[in-house]
Write a structure and sequence with these properties.
Layout lengths: L2 H28 L4 H20 L3 H21 L1 H9 L13 H20 L4 E5 L6 H5 L2 E6 L2 H7 L10 E5 L2 E7 L15 H12 L3 E6 L4 E6 L2 E3 L4 H12 L4
Parallel strand pairs: 1-3
Antiparallel strand pairs: 1-5, 2-4, 3-4, 5-6, 6-7
Helix pairs in contact: 1-2, 2-3, 5-7, 5-9
């Protein structure tokens, strides 16, 4: 078997590898913007276009060629602000954040839980979102930048009564407090009891759009809840909160 034969065998694999590499970087580019969902649709069309070409399906290939061209133009027009935001982030080193050590994660979680318990005891409300896989950059952008080390003292000071940031949400990203006073989407769910207020609706709304882990401290009911993937776990102790978060993050104790 000569070199040309080897190339014919490996050519499809090389093309697929390059295609998926491009798709991966496109997703990273638009991470944290509302254009990401639209780009996923474009990527599906692109993959289908590639498959139809390989299978020589002429009519489908022609239709997708036209559809793909229109879609790209629509993306450039409709999502111009998001594309500009993605370009501004290309040179930022924190795009590829280093994973935290298990010890660091546990320390951060203990600080968050301690703050939640203290705030609950002092009849103060709080809304804390911990970024998991889905980016929370969109919500960080509408808040007040903090970029501070996670500590119970800082969290408690942010949510102290009469504070300017008291009513918004706090976002923890890459092991640091990224921003406070953030606005989260309110859930329209009719199944949520009327005893729960705006913070719980905001937590549920965020959990419906992302995989964030959200802690809610109710100043009226003086209890702590955890919201994840549209599920509300109410009236939990600090130990129960810590256990559930570790279980979600698959941290073995």
């Amino acid at each position: 078997m000569n070199l040309a034969d080897y190339f014919l065998i490996w050519k499809p694999l090389l093309e697929i590898s390059i295609l998926w590499l491009v798709i991966y970087h496109i997703i990273l580019f638009f991470e944290g913007t509302r254009a990401l969902a639209a780009m996923r649709g474009i990527i599906i069309v692109l993959v289908a276009f590639f498959v139809f070409q390989k299978l020589n399906l002429t009519i489908l290939d022609w239709l997708l060629t036209k559809l793909f061209g229109i879609s790209v133009i629509a993306i450039l027009i409709v999502f111009h602000p998001e594309i500009r935001q993605g370009l501004s982030r290309l040179g930022q080193g924190h795009l590829f954040a280093q994973p935290l050590r298990k010890e660091d994660i546990e320390q951060i979680l203990q600080q968050i839980v301690k703050a939640a318990e203290d705030l609950c005891r002092n009849k103060e409300g709080a809304l804390i979102a911990i970024e998991k896989n889905d980016s929370l950059n969109t919500y960080i952008a509408n808040g007040v930048p903090i970029d501070g080390r996670v500590s119970s003292e800082l969290i408690e000071n942010i949510f102290i009564r009469n504070s300017l940031l008291h009513d918004g949400g706090l976002v923890i990203q890459h092991g640091r407090i990224a921003a406070a006073g953030c606005l989260f989407p309110l859930s329209e769910s009719q199944g949520l009891s009327r005893v729960f207020g705006t913070r719980h609706r905001a937590a549920l709304g965020l959990s419906q759009e992302t995989d964030a882990i959200i802690i809610v401290v109710s100043e009226e009911r003086q209890d702590i809840s955890l919201v994840y993937r549209s599920r509300l776990y109410k009236d939990l102790s600090g130990e129960e909160i810590l256990f559930r978060i570790k279980d979600i993050l698959q941290i073995k104790t």
